[in-house]
Amino acid sequence: MKLKEVYDVVVVGAGNAGLCSAISAAQKGKRVLVIEKAPRIYRGGNSSLTMNFRFPHNNFEELLSLIDDGDRNLKIEEVLRESYMPYTKDDFLHDLRSTSDNQGDLDLQETLVDKSFETILWMANLGHKWTYKDFGNIFKRNIPLKIKGSGKSLQERNFNIAESLGVDIMYCTSLYDFVMVDNCVKELILTKDNGELFHLPANSLILALGGYEANPYFRQKFLGESWENVGIRGVPFNTGDWFFPAIKNNIQLYGDYSEVGCHATPQSSYLPDYLLPGENIKSQNQSRYQFNLGITINHDGKRFFDEGENMPNFLYAKVGRMINKQINNMAFQIFDRKTVGFLSQSYFSDENLFSSNSLRVMCEKFGINHRNLHDTIESYNRNCVDNVICDFSYLDGNKSVDCFGVPKSNWAQKIDTPPYYIAPVKAGVTFTYGGLKVRPDARVYRTNGECIDNMFACGEIMGGVHYGNYAGGTGLMLGAVFGRIAGENA
Q1: How confident is the model at residue 1 (pLDDT cuts 50, 70, 90)?
Q2: pLDDT grade, residue 210 (50/70/90)?
Q3: Is 128 helix (H, G, I), strand (E, B) or coil?
C-alpha cells in the first residue's frame, strides 16, 4: 500500500482494541494508520474467536435495544425476561475485584466499569448488534446476549467501519522498536515479514498488539517451564513484540507476570497448537467449561479443585492452570447419565467424549488409577445429599467432600447412574495478564513515573486489570473501552 506522508495516529495491532482506537481517532478527523502483523487473510486477532462483552445493565429493555428488530424473538424474550436480573456497575466491579482476589489497578477497573455501557452504545451506533445466547450459556450475574455473528463478524464490521472512515491498514508488518526523544515517540522501526526494516514517523502511537501468549520463550520465562509447549486458544501472532522495546526505552512493565498470570481454560485434548481468525466454531468446540456438572480427576484418580467454587464463568480461566500442573498436563471430566444431557454441543463435536457402563474400563483406556477413582467417587457420593436434583443456573449450596479432602461447594450430585462419560482435557492459554502500566486515559508510564506524551495502549497489552483469574466477557469490553479512550486522546 502507498503510505500518506504523515499520519496523525499510528495504531499497532488490529484486534478489537486496536480497531476501536483507530475508529475513535478517525471520528475525530485524524489520519490513522493501523499496523498489523498478520497477513490480510488472517486478520482479526483473538477478538475474532470470541463473542462475549461484559457490561452493566439496569433493565431488560436496555438489552433489547441492542438487538436488531428483525432478530427479535418474543418467545425467547419471554423466557429471558422471567429470569432477568439487573447487573449493576457495583456488581461488575465486585466481580472484577473478587476474581482478581481484590488485586489489580482499581483506577483501571473502575474506568472499565464506568465506561462500559456507554461504549456498548457507541458500538451500537457504529452498526454493531447483539443477539441471544443459547439458554445453556445463560447464568445469573452474566449477560444473556452475545455479539451478533460472534467475533468473526465483530471484526469484519470493525474493519469495514475503520476503512469507511479512511483508516489505512498495513499487513504483514511487525513492531521492531521505536525511537524516543525527550518524552515523546518520534518514529517507529517496523519490520516486514521478509525481514526488511523501515522507519515511520509517529505523531501519536497506540499500542494494541495483545499479550505474549504465543511466545514459548516468554511463557516459560514468566509462567513456568510447563507452559512452554501448551496449546494456544488464539492466534499465533501475539508474541509480545512490545516487550524488548519497552525495556530498552524505560517503559514500565506492570501487572501479573507470575505463574498464575494467564487466562488458561479447560480444552479438549485435541486442542491444536493455535487457532486462526474466523475459526469461531472450531474454537467454541474445543471448550470444556461445564466441569460443574460433574467432577474432574487426574491420572491418579483424585480430584484437585472445587468444581463448584463459583459459577463457571468466574472460575474457568484459572482451571486450565490447575490442569497443567497434573500428570502429563492432563485431566478428565466425569459425568453420568443424569447430567450428560446438560452438556453443550461442543462436548460431542470432535469424538472426544467417551462412555462406558464401567469406570474400570474407562480407567484402563486412559491409564487412570482405578482404586483411587473408586474411593474418590464412593466417598464423594456418600457425602452428597440423597436424591438431590441440581439447578446449575445458581449456586445451590449442595456440598460434598471426597476422601482426599477436596470439596465441591455447589451442585454436588451423586455420580452413580451409568453409562459414565469421560472428557479428557488439557489447558489452553487465551491471553496473558502482564503488560504495560497504563493510566485511565490510556497513556503509558515510564519507569520514572512520568507518562509518555504521545504513547497510548489498550486491550490485552494493559497490565494490572486481571490477577490470577478473570470474569468472562471482560476482555472484549476492556479492548473496546480503552480503545475508544486511546483513540480520543491520541
Answers
A1: low
A2: very high
A3: coil
Other CB atoms within 10 A of residue 59 CB: 9
| Identity of residue 480 | A
Residue 323, burial from CB neighbour count under 10 angstroms (0-12, 13-18, 19+): buried
Task: Work out the burial of residue 212: count CB atoms within 10 Å of its CB; fewer than 13 is exposed, 13-18 middle, 19 or more buried.
Answer: buried
C-alpha distances (whole Å) from 328 to each of 72, 87, 420, 423, 424 are 47, 40, 23, 15, 12
What is the structure's pLDDT at 81? Answer: 85
pLDDT tens digits, one per residue of 299-321 = 999 999 999 999 999 999 999 99
How far is 477 from 122, CA to CA, in rounded Å? 12
Question: Which residues neighbour 401 within 8 Å (Cβ) at sequence distance 6 or greater?
Answer: 379, 380, 383, 407, 408
Q: Write the CB contacts of 237 (distance below 8 Å, at least 6 apart in sequence).
A: 37, 38, 42, 45, 210, 214
Gap between the Cα atoms of 171 and 162, Å rounded: 15
> Nine-digit cell at 98?
473478587
- pLDDT > 60? residue 444: yes
What's the one-letter identity of residue 44? G
User: How far is the CA of 74 from the CAs of 77, 129, 137, 445, in angstroms?
Assistant: 5, 17, 19, 49
pLDDT over 70, % of the chain: 97
Say which residue the cell 472445587 belongs to: 306
Q: Would you tell me how many other CB atoms lie within 10 Å of the CB of residue 197?
A: 10
Neighbours of 403 (CB within 10 A): 17
This prediction's pTM: 0.95
Which is nearest to 35 in space by CA: 178, 164, 156, 151? 178
pLDDT of residue 391: 86
> Rounded to whole angstroms, how far apart are CA atoms 14 and 154?
12
Strands 173-181, 451-457: pairing is unpaired
User: What is the percent of the chain with per-residue pLDDT over 90, rounded to a whole number?
Assistant: 87
Q: Is the pLDDT of residue 141 over 80?
A: no
The DSSP secondary structure of 65-104, one letter per residue, reads TTB-GGG--HHHHHHHHHH---B-HHHHHHHHHHHTTT-S
**Paired residues of 188 in beta bridges:** 178, 200
DSSP state for residue 214 in the 8-state scheme: T
CB atoms within 10 A of CB 130: 23
Q: What is the mean pLDDT of the chain?
A: 94
pLDDT attached to residue 137? 54
Which of 295, 291, 288, 307 is closest to 375 using CA atoms?
A: 295
Strand-pairing partners, residue 355, are 421
Q: Where are the alpha helices (DSSP H) in 296-453?
A: 316-324, 359-366, 370-382
State residue 26's pLDDT score: 98
> What pLDDT was estimated at residue 144?
83
